[in-house]
Amino acid sequence: MSASLLVKDAATSRFVAGGLAEVEALFGSPLPALPAPERDGDQRVFLVHTHARLRSLLARYLGALLAQIGIAGATRGPSGASDVAEYEEGLGRVLRAVRAADRSQGLLNLFWLAHSRDAAEHLRGLEKQVPDLGRGKLSLFPLLQSFYRRMNEASRVPPDGEPAAAVAADNPALIHSLIDDGFAFTEVSVDTLDLGAFLASNKRYRIAPEVFYEIQSLLVRDAERRLREGDRGLLARASRHLPGIPREHYLKPGSLVKLVLSEPILTYLLADPFGAGARLAASPRLRAEAERGRGGEAFGALLDLAAGLRRFEIVCHARDRVTPLGAASTTRDLEEKTSRGLRVYEFGESAQVLNQAVPATILFLDLRGFTRTAEGQISERDLTRELYAVFDAFVPIIERFGGTVDKYLGDGMMVTWGAGRADELDPLNAVRAAVLCQSSLQRSRETGRTWFKMGIAIHHGRVYLARFIGGAGSVHATVIGRNVNIAGRLSSADRRRLVVDGEEIEEPEELNETGGREVRVNADGTLLNEGIAISRETLVELETHLALVHTDRGMEYEDEAIDRRLVIRYAGDAKFKGLRSSMPVYAVDDEARG
């Protein structure tokens, strides 16, 4: 999930163009976690509600810092050490609450994204009232960095008497970038960043704007010359490290800037003593820097700045997805959004995700004959190999149609659609995956690689997203709830118990000795499933989004994605232990399209 949220399209970028590989080079792999966003039209956004008290404390804290560095008029009333102390106490409580609720789903990263933007937007608003603030705010960096570093570290330690938060290991690179790169708390967007003004006032990067632009200009001209001459080394690095830029666009001004700020290309250009190196050494301005003993410092700052700019653009790409809900949002406002199935990330002293219950499609896949095979004349090694052969073939099919393998169940699998990002075609994609998995198993049976048969069940309903902490800092994310249990019942009910002459026996599990697939419900309500069974809720979702044709056989649909004709028929009302009423069950049959 994080990859799609952090990778920016090169066509709309200012500094980055390397895709996922560049993001991983800048932030590490695996990437910092981010929670699941919501879909708003064509955009995916984070609905964030930050308590008004914290925003008020942030504004007063920034006012106190501005007064400390001599920016008059930045606050309406007196400010001082008490404002800093009060903000520190309030922020500390929120950070500990967010960390405790995080469970490696990225809540802490999302909080810092939202909070840094609140700070930047507050300062931008003040700029309209205080003329000196534009440049003066950039001098805040050392104070902000020191403070937020300390707060981030302190939040890891629970107060006396409180248990440590159940968190797993996570990549802290995004938070470190926000705090240490010098842009996030004072700049709203990479697109509006005035880099010259930033370098003139900011204390983060020890390079004067005129020196930076001198180096950049020389490198751009050198890169342009090399590209026109067909420099193979440069072309190879550009193709490998900036795949988002078409080769025919390399000579465009914007592309040249991206090229020379890419670390692999920047170091390649600087390493040539007869090309860019000689031209840089001949520059009067750079020669003067060297004579003052700051030549090496300038080039070190250049590399640091290039990385910081690219990280900030990626941060902005993720941060722009934050949709803040007004500080005046009431409980009723939040309930209205959650009632529509929207997730709201609430950051306060009781940090939480409102509406972790989401509509999802659950598929259970259960092999028939596993128990009897395991108890027969077969070694554990051979049984394991047979399971590998079966399940390994299913995984690419599930991934092709957007499913996620939630867990393996020994002789089965649980797969979900919609737990991370919902799509209206999730139920259809689950049916498609089920059909192809059954076909894959049938081919294995025909070639003698397995004797297993299989029952598949698909159910659609609301589930709760849960994240359990495992050993060594790992997290197991899964879905739980009544609808998960119903999906499991539809899958596992493959046999019934009969009473013959007073003795309870099991009905044989094979429903069709020819190797075909069948789903039926007996007169007593027992479901027997060696095919694909779906619930009425799943059928309703399919009917809502598909043009099903009613025929004598049932409801039919020509599916071009898998080149099959799907036939959905009523199998009967099944009874399950623990459910008060019987449950309508439908079977999905398939055949090649004529």
Question: In short, what is this structure?
Answer:
With 594 residues, the protein is α+β, with helices and mostly antiparallel strands. 46% of the residues lie in helices and 19% in strands. The longest helix has 25 residues, at 295-319.
Explain this structure to me?
The structure is a single chain. This protein has 594 residues and is of the alpha+beta class. The protein has two domains: 22-188 and 319-355, no CATH class; 357-592, 2-Layer Sandwich (Alpha-Beta Plaits). Helices cover 46% and strands 19% of the residues. It has 22 helices and 19 strands. Strands 6, 7, 8, 9, 10, 15, 16, 17, 18 and 19 form a ten-stranded mixed sheet that branches. Strands 1, 2, 3, 4 and 5 form a five-stranded mixed sheet that branches. The chain has a two-stranded antiparallel sheet with strand order 11-12. Strand 7 (404-408) and strand 8 form a beta hairpin. Helix 3 packs across helix 4, helix 11 (232-241) packs antiparallel against helix 13 and helix 19 runs antiparallel to helix 20. The model is unreliable at 494-515 (pLDDT under 50).
Shape: globular
Radius of gyration, in Å, reads: 30 Å
Distance between the termini: 39 Å
The largest sheet is: 10 strands, mixed
Q: Pairing-aware structural class of the strands and helices?
A: alpha+beta
Count of the separate structural domains: 2
Q: Give the low-pLDDT segments.
A: 494-515
The CATH superfamily of the largest domain is known as Nucleotide cyclase, GGDEF domain
Number of DSSP strand runs: 19
Strand percentage, roughly? Answer: 15-25%
- DSSP helix count? 22
User: What is the CATH third-level topology name of the largest domain?
Assistant: Alpha-Beta Plaits
Mind telling me which CATH architecture of the largest domain this is?
2-Layer Sandwich
Q: What is the typical, i.e. mean, pLDDT?
A: 86
CATH class of the largest domain: Alpha Beta
Helix proportion range: 40-55%
